[in-house]
Amino acid sequence: MSMASDHDLAISRWLIICLILIFAMAVLDSLKRIPASQQPILPQNASVSLLPPLSDADWRHEFSHYRQSPRYLKLSPEMGLAEYKFLFLLSYAQRMLGPLLGFVFIIPFIYFCWRDRLDPGLTRKLNLMFTLGVLQGLLGWYMLRGGPVEKVQLYHYWLSAYLLIIVSIYGYMLWAIFGLRDRQSYMPMHFSELTLWRIGSLVLTTLVLITIVSGGFVSGLGAGSMYNSFPLMDGQLIPDGLDAMSPWYMNLFENRLTVQFHHRILAVATALVLIAWYLARDRLLHEPVIKTSFKLVGMMVVIQMLLGIATLLLQIPAWLGVMHWAGALLLFGAMLFNVHSLSRL
Fold it and tell me: Scanning 116, 169, 200, 273, which has its CA 20 to 30 A from the CA of 295?
């Protein structure tokens, strides 16, 4: 492992702070999504306010507006004012983290550019991170304003796209941090001693990402609150009704039974393959960084598998749902570290 220069370490520390804020935003977002049918949409007039409602009268006024929204009428008519306050404040805290993250990202970026500390390759990466961040912010704002979610049946598509952007920003920033803290040169695939291992690691990372996106469909449809048994669903290994919708492909995206079933299959298959991947590590060269990356993958996949099963069996308690989402991000990060370490030999 090649040591990074002082200015590379300074840039990496800045990006680590940004990464922590992104992680915090993702955690707050997952709290706001549990359960999926009880997500408050911030009123349009709240989107331009720097402060949440401060008096009881203001809270009652905001809640009366929300009670007229299609999401409240269709999915959460039992919600009370106290629960609305809690979920509203979670939305508000997440919304405030967005501008804070923008400030923490932009100011040091301008400083490093002014001091000519950024090489062209890193500048392009940072510009892409900023573009993805703006896209994620716009999509989040659109969803909070009630755009696509006024049509409740479309919500899970937008949620999955939103999660994919969050994971992309998180992963891309993490990859840049790895590169800054380890200046050992990238080894082209056809020159590498570990070509097949690198291909396998990329495939498994993609599989983890697909599993995360499928979880977005489960969350958006509220499918996790159904069939809370494992490994059987409704007393069957392969339940009836997987093809209940027509045309057939709609089952893949809108049939709650099918969406949960596919997420289960993906999650179990991913966990088993990653465990096998971890157990096969002794075939590799005894490089400490590579060994560490495999240990992180092995540890996180077991934790994430247990969290997923517990979340399902206990019918998605908020704290477990948050830990399951955080575990997904950490597992994806561990896989990226695995890819990075294998790409240097």
Answer: 169
